[in-house]
Amino acid sequence: MSSLFTRLRPTLSHLSRHSRARILVAGYHEKVIDHYENPRNVGSFDKNDAQVGTGLVGAPACGDVMKLQIKVDDDGKIIDARFKTFGCGSAIASSSLATEWVKGKSVNEATQIKNTDIAKELSLPPVKLHCSMLAEDAIKAALKDYQLKRKSKMEEPVAAVAGE
Amino acid sequence: MAAFRKLGEKLLLSGTSGRRLLSTRQLNCWNCNKTISVQLDEPTFTCPCEHHVILPPTTSNYFHILQCDVQFDIKPEVIKSRYHWLQRWLHPDKYALKSPLERQFAEEHSSLINKAYNTLSDHYRRGLYMLELNNVEIDEKDNLIAGGEEFLETIMNINEEIHANPSQAKLKQLMNNNEVSLNKSITVLSDCFKKNDLEGAKSALSEMKYYINIKEEILSRIQI
Prior knowledge:
- The structure holds 2 protein chains of 2 kinds.
- Chain A is an alpha+beta fold.
- Chain A is built from 7 helices and 3 strands; from the N terminus they run H-H-H-E-E-E-H-H-H-H.
- Chain A has a single domain (about 30-150), classed as Alpha-Beta Complex (Sufe protein. Chain: A), CATH 3.90.1010.
- Chain A has helices at about 1-15, 15-25, 30-35, 90-100, 105-110, 115-120, 130-164, and strands spanning about 50-60, 65-70, 80-85.
- Chain A has a 3-stranded antiparallel β-sheet with strand order 1-2-3.
- In chain A, strand 1 (about 50-60) and strand 2 (about 65-70) form a beta hairpin.
- The longest helix of chain A is centred in the C-terminal third of the chain and has 35 residues, at about 130-165.
- The N and C termini of chain A lie far apart (about 80 Å).
- By secondary structure, chain B is mainly alpha-helical.
- Chain B has 2 domains: about 1-120, Orthogonal Bundle (Helix Hairpins); about 140-220, Up-down Bundle (Monooxygenase).
- Chain B has helices at about 1-15, 60-65, 75-90, 100-120, 125-135, 150-165, 170-195, 200-220; strands at about 25-30, 35-40.
- The interface of A and B includes residues 57, 58, 63, 86 and 133 of A.
């Protein structure tokens, strides 16, 4: 293996840094690598914040775990998003892209994001399609969590009146 | 070589057309053409004729190849010695001077024996293989797990701790805790297979995969 690399090195050194990186990480599309190396919106929000919806999902076949959070303003618009993913490059890229896409969308618009769109944007191969599905599930879970919080918040005063 | 393979296929076909009994199957030796009856749940490697030529693999079930019962609890030392013994006997290098057909069969056996040992010697892979034998698989789209969100939160927290540049002592502590969780899952898995509870086994294996990933992550950071 090392001798193969020794023989390849002179050839590789003539290539630009960009195309060399593509050879060495053959298999991942450059968009995936970009998100992997410079992930957008990594981090977390306080999950108890009424404005925040949290989606926590896992893929039991590969052991990946993904957390996606959205922050929604009073008009139902997603103003910010964060994610934390422990898993393969495709899972990290899918969730990173998902946070970029949900930002600026309304809660209803965000439900329209499909895993196929994520997979297409990142040129994911068929064996990595489930990573984009995980990202879609994470968005849905975050939206559901936010809606549940909102619903219980709206029901609170009613319950108080009924309790009187 | 091609002619030999064709000959082998022809003989194989004549073998499978033999009368099938419940637990045995008849096949014809490619060399002496004698009819041999082989057990379905036990491997037959050679023809009992005077040349003891190698037969093509008669079973692809890993448990049968390593001659142990199809059950989760197996003795690691038993399959290890069985594996070494088989590889000493059937390794293709031993057949370098034999006919191409026999060498090909030795390669097929050797590769199957390797796969069988690699699969059965690991708790996780053995569990998955047993599910596979029962036509159950862990679906990539399947996001359900016994512990639900609470379990995922625990996994998330452990991963966050590992990635927060912990001290070596902290890493070792995380490693020990993870080993305890991993062993618990193995016990659950073993119980599920004893009760033939395949859904339970599936859920235990799903949990195990998260612990295995955590273990690899810790091992890549720990200095021994």
